């Protein structure tokens, strides 16, 4: 029972708590905020796994950018949006049974997994290691990702543009 | 290095993935479905980072892959939100079960 284990327990508990709250809350904005709790706890878990750079990126992208864009989506569609409980309870029960079957199948597969003591030194100058790996081994995927981002940006603008502006 | 076994991280990721899957299949609001998909992608990211530290062939590559996944997920959210706003302008609703325009 050392400090690392206690930190893992607290962080995983808050992550799961955020997910459960997201399933049970009524207002859409509250659901979004509870998911932010999950994202931040996952960033803490990345720090435990000696991935500091990924943790900072997680906080910046997920709990920053993605949350803001979803909040704008909520604001632009329905202010008082409520997710009324599905009328179809039978379907929810069937989906729950399916998800439980999936859970226990995968749990049986990962129950006895052990690969070794793990890597040493991933936390030493983590950002430098990631930068060297990206720009030495993964340059072409990195450039392709920039093209994907450009295409997504243009696609989002074209899709969300008001119709009839071509006439002006 | 670390005293927490690999299974703990994998089971946490599995629980988060199951929560996201259940939400994505049962919720009616499209924004909530998008959030649930983000939760599932986050669980996958946790798996990648856990294997990069404790996997069979540990190294920095898992963290690089999770960075690529985060980028693609951000692009996906932007396009999904644009589609949602265009849909809302057409039909004035955000519920998934009303999106059956291809049925007729």
Automatic annotation (TrEMBL), chain A:
It comes from the Bacteria. It comes from Salinibacillus xinjiangensis. The chain crosses the membrane at residues 6-25, 32-49, 55-77, 89-110, 135-160. Its EC number is 7.1.1.-. Pfam families: Oxidored_q3. Its main location: membrane. InterPro entries: NADH_UbQ/plastoQ_OxRdtase_su6, Nuo/plastoQ_OxRdtase_6_NuoJ. It is a multi-pass membrane protein. GO terms for cellular component: plasma membrane. This is NADH-quinone oxidoreductase subunit J. Belongs to the complex I subunit 6 family. NDH-1 shuttles electrons from NADH, via FMN and iron-sulfur (Fe-S) centers, to quinones in the respiratory chain. Couples the redox reaction to proton translocation (for every two electrons transferred, four hydrogen ions are translocated across the cytoplasmic membrane), and thus conserves the redox energy in a proton gradient. It is found in: Cell membrane. It catalyses: a quinone + NADH + 5 H(+)(in) = a quinol + NAD(+) + 4 H(+)(out). Keywords: Cell membrane, Membrane, NAD, Oxidoreductase, Quinone, Transmembrane, Transmembrane helix. One of its GO terms (molecular function) is oxidoreductase activity.
From TrEMBL, chain B:
The chain crosses the membrane at residues 6-25, 32-52, 64-88. Its EC number is 7.1.1.-. The keyword Transport applies. It is an enzyme of class 7 (translocase). It catalyses: a quinone + NADH + 5 H(+)(in) = a quinol + NAD(+) + 4 H(+)(out). It is found in: Cell membrane; Membrane. It is a multi-pass membrane protein. The keyword NAD applies. GO terms for molecular function: NADH dehydrogenase (quinone) (non-electrogenic) activity; quinone binding. Keywords: Cell membrane, Membrane, NAD, Oxidoreductase, Quinone, Translocase, Transmembrane, Transmembrane helix, Transport. GO terms for biological process: ATP synthesis coupled electron transport. GO terms for cellular component: NADH dehydrogenase complex; plasma membrane. NDH-1 shuttles electrons from NADH, via FMN and iron-sulfur (Fe-S) centers, to quinones in the respiratory chain. The immediate electron acceptor for the enzyme in this species is believed to be a menaquinone. Couples the redox reaction to proton translocation (for every two electrons transferred, four hydrogen ions are translocated across the cytoplasmic membrane), and thus conserves the redox energy in a proton gradient. NDH-1 is composed of 14 different subunits. Subunits NuoA, H, J, K, L, M, N constitute the membrane sector of the complex. Belongs to the complex I subunit 4L family. This is NADH-quinone oxidoreductase subunit K. It comes from Salinibacillus xinjiangensis. The lineage of its organism: Bacteria, Bacillati, Bacillota, Bacilli, Bacillales.
